[in-house]
Design goal:
The protein is of the alpha/beta class. It folds into 2 domains: about 1-100, Rossmann fold, CATH 3.40.50.170; about 105-199, Formyl transferase, N-terminal domain (Rossmann fold). About 35% of the residues lie in helices and about 25% in strands. The protein is built from 6 helices and 9 strands. Helix 1 links the parallel strand 1 (about 1-10) and strand 2. Helix 1 packs across helix 6. The structure holds 5-O-phosphono-beta-D-ribofuranosylamine. 5-O-phosphono-beta-D-ribofuranosylamine binds near residues 14, 108 and 173.
Amino acid sequence: MKRLGILLSGRGSNFEAIAGNVAAGRLDAEIAVVISNRPEARGLETARALGLKAVCLPSKGMEREAYDRLVVAELKANQVDLVCLAGFMRLLSAYFVRQFPGRILNIHPALLPSFPGLDAQHQALEHGVKVTGCTVHFVDENLDSGPIVAQATVPVLDDDTADSLATRILQQEHRIYSEAIRLVLSGNFRIEGRRVLAR
Ligand code: GRF
């Protein structure tokens, strides 16, 4: 059974969706460890309530690579095969990325390469796009970069606020993150340049 390591910083709804699919047998994997860089993250409580291993490694005041060494050590101690960033609000160092080559995924609430970084839903509204969505991608050391595994579109409605838009995007995030994890764990893909293609 493949082992997932989940990194989060907050609410943890993507983590919950993944955990739900694992529990229901829709995702053939186990969650080996959930790590948060923020002690107050709700996702940590959820993990504990689900009986999963939940570890808090506070990042406050720590230099990037020194912190990443702690996280990598925890992931390796738990024999993690695939690292899933789920609302983890930190850029990974080159050191971290090298430790898990092609084995780190992230989810972003926009159709990358549009609107990387913070407040992607707000950025989409401000820009006036009519369609936005979400992206699951492999992680490299740049922000919201790396080959795209899955995307879903979400229409922007005239009466949308950043919150209402975020809520609809989140429903798609919860769906495509597990699909992307399934594909990556299956190994039935190849990467050509930036393209993730079916094998
Ligand atoms: C999601 O919108 C995700 O795309 C972004 O951060 C948010 C995390 O939400 N990276 P949650 O913690 O999974 O509920």
